[in-house]
Structure formats: C-alpha cells, structure tokens
Write a structure and sequence with these properties.
Layout: H1 13-31, H2 37-48, H3 54-63, H4 71-105, H5 133-146, E1 151-152, E2 158-160, H6 161-164, E3 197-199, H7 205-213, E4 218-227, E5 239-249, H8 254-269, E6 275-282, E7 285-294, E8 303-304, E9 307-308, E10 317-326, H9 328-334, E11 342-349, H10 350-358, H11 371-374
Parallel strand pairs: 1-4
Antiparallel strand pairs: 2-3, 4-5, 5-11, 6-7, 7-10, 8-9, 10-11
Helix pairs in contact: 1-4, 2-4, 3-4, 5-10
This protein binds 3,4-dihydroxyphenylalanine.
Length: 378
C-alpha cells in the first residue's frame, strides 16, 4: 500500500520516533524505483511537492497541531525528516543522470536503451572474423616456402612497362605480351614506352625488384594481387593473386626446381600427389615448364565412379603453375653475372590452388563478399 501520513494522536517521544522512522523507511523504499528523469520528478513531487507533498502533510498533521510544550521537539524531528528527504532526492538525481550517461554510451550494445539494464540477459553475439580463403591459401603457400628458408618480398601493383615486361625479357611488341591482357594507365603517350604505367599482370616483376636490391644467394616468395583485362566468369577474374618464387645461387639446377616444387605440391595437396613437368614457354625462363599434379579428385586415374573425371578432363593431370630456369638475359637487366649464377623461378595462381583445395566451383565466389560462403573457411 502506498504510504500516507496519518494524524498523530500520541505525542510521546516513542510514538514520534516510530512515526518518523516509518516515514523514512518508505522514503528509501520508494527511492529505489527512480531510474529516469520522469520517475525522479514523480518521486520529488510526491515527497516535497508544494501543494500536497508528504513533507507538507507532516507539517500540517504532525507539527502544526502539536501541543505547545512538545512543538520544539516535533520541529527538530520535522527538520531532520526534511533534510533526509532532500538528501535522498539529490542522490536519486545523480543516480538517474549516471544511468542516462551509461545508456547513451552503450546504446549500440543495448538494443533498447530505455529498458532497465538487465545483466542476466544473454549478450549480443559478435561473430569472430576469419581469414579470407584467398589470403588463407596464400599464407599456406608462403608457409611451405618459409619452412624451406625462403623470405617474403612484395612489389607495387602499379608497375612500369619495364618491370612488368622488358626486364623480364619480353621485348617491345613481342607477341608473348599478348598472353597477358594488360590494363594500361591512360594518358601516358608522351612517356617513353618503358616508363609507361600499367596494372601488373603477374608477380614476376617482383623478381626484378628483388634482384636489383639483393645479391645472390636469393630465395624469395612474392605474394600479391594482379590485374588482367579479362571478363569475369566462373574461371576468370580481372583481379586475382599469385605467389611468385625465385631462387638464385651458384650451381642451382633444374633438379633443384623439380625437387622444390614436388615437395611444395605434396605439402599443399597431400603426400600422395605426383608432379609432372611439361615443356612450356615463358620469356624470362629457359627452359620453361608447366607443372601438373596428379588429379586430386580421381587420384590420377582419369575416371571416378566408372565415369571420366571432369576435373582433369579424364587426363589424370591438373595444370597448376609455370616455372623454369631464369633466362640469362634477365640477369643482364639486374647486373648479375650469368656465367657465375643460376636459378629458377615459378609462379602459381592462388585462387587456382584454393579452388582445388576447397572444391570451389566458381572463382567469383572469392570476390562477392557473401558471408555464407566466407564463413565456411573460419
Ligand atoms: N608470370 C607467369 C604468368 O603469370 C607465371 C610464371 C611462369 C612465373 C614461369 C614464373 C615462371 O616465375 O618461372 O603467367
């Protein structure tokens, strides 16, 4: 029942003290409910409202009618009640102001900041982010070579024609440039051709940057993003990633290249995987090869469940990367002595590795940012 002030019939000290402490008990109990500017105002008016506040009733029902000889004592009690009420009202004001500040500061956490704080409610679930599958795969590839003692180098995504082509032994106007559908930066006609800027079409230019600043022995992997003027479809993307590799030292042979890449493929796809080196051409390596791995879907048999394997077109082999022995002409561009050093290079597409490892059937999935796809790699 809501507290009300009643007439005092008995003005003995015991009865006065009892009445006062009953009032103060209600004061404190009611003050607990204050938690906003609105509830505080109601509380304040109920206790010290000028027209009919509880304090005014105490004056009218206890103090004014008190017999003259008791009045001073009732006055002291009245004054004490008044001070305590004012104190509680001031404290409650501070409390609701602090609550308001807290609610404002946490309003992005608590969906409804007008509700009282209930710390027993379940928290808001914040999903933990995960590495993007392309970055994850890139780091896995890098990890394999780090374990072999390779370090990591990076280069710019906007390159000059010189680094992307010329120093990699693509002579001006050579038809090998046609295999890399290049996006040139517009408006550079006044520059000499080798200084013109383009979006790098492969990570191979990082080989040149590396050899310009390091003397042999060199063992580096160069991860990065590249761009080609290709229309997007399930197997093409105008942006994709490669990891380039370069090892230059004395007496490096094609055997070292084969051993290194065979090990890397087994580390990435499992120790049962076999590798095959198929003759190919790249201007910056001689000889050059495409590396194929035995099909991981049909174990190299070319058939699965009695039907030709679609992943390797029934050949039992999947082509994965390009490689070769660094062409002596390339050493000429970076001031290495081609009669003293030899080396190998390789470049692999990261999305291609990820597609095979994770059985993804559309390269576009890597670039659409659909969380339902991405969260599967967490
Ligand atoms: N840069 C080549 C490409 O994007 C891939 C490549 C082939 C890199 C042979 C190499 C290499 O380092 O030796 O098509």
């Amino acid at each position: 029942m809501l507290y009300t002030v009643t007439n005092l019939t008995d003005y003995t000290e015991a009865s006065l003290v009892r009445a006062a402490s009953e009032l103060l008990e209600h004061l404190r109990a009611e003050s607990d409910a204050v938690e906003s500017a609105e509830t505080w105002k109601l509380f304040r008016d109920r206790w010290i409202g000028r027209k009919n506040g509880i304090l005014k009733q105490v004056r009218e029902l206890w103090l004014n009618p008190a017999p003259a000889e008791i009045k001073p004592r009732v006055g002291v009690i009245y004054r004490d009640i008044e001070l305590q009420i004012e104190d509680v009202i001031a404290t409650q004001k501070k409390k609701y102001e602090a609550i308001a500040i807290f609610r404002k500061a946490t309003s992005d956490i608590f969906l409804d900041a007008t509700l009282p704080l209930d710390i027993t409610l379940p928290g808001i679930h914040r999903p933990i982010g995960a590495e993007h599958p392309v970055i994850k795969t890139m780091n896995e590839i890098i990890g394999v070579f780090r374990n072999l003692g390779y370090s990591v180098e990076e280069g710019p995504e906007i390159e000059t024609d010189y680094y992307n082509f010329e120093a990699l032994n693509f002579p001006p106007n050579h038809s090998a440039r046609d295999t890399q559908d290049t996006l040139f930066i517009a408006g550079q006609e006044s520059k000499p051709p080798r200084d013109r800027l383009l979006l790098r079409t492969h990570t191979s230019p990082v080989q040149i940057h590396t050899m310009e600043k390091m003397r042999p022995p060199v063992r580096v992997v160069c991860p990065g993003k590249l761009h080609r003027n290709d229309a997007p479809d399930p197997t093409h993307s105008p942006i994709f990633h490669q990891v380039e590799g370069l090892a230059v030292d004395t007496n490096i042979t094609f055997c070292d290249l084969k051993g290194t890449l065979d090990h890397a493929m087994k580390a990435l796809f499992g120790s049962n995987v076999k590798t095959r080196f198929y003759p190919s051409f790249f201007p910056f390596t001689e000889p050059s090869a495409d590396v194929q791995i035995s099909c991981i879907f049909c174990d190299g048999k070319g058939a699965r469940d009695g039907a030709p394997c679609r992943n390797c077109k029934a050949s039992g082999w999947i082509e994965l990367l390009g490689c070769g022995m660094v062409d002596p002409n390339v050493y000429g561009f970076v001031d290495y002595d081609a009669t003293k050093v030899s080396g190998f290079a390789f470049g692999m597409g990261v999305e291609r590795v990820a597609i095979l490892k994770y059985g993804v059937d559309d390269i576009q999935l890597f670039f659409q940012g659909d969380v339902r796809f991405l969260e599967q790699f967490g």
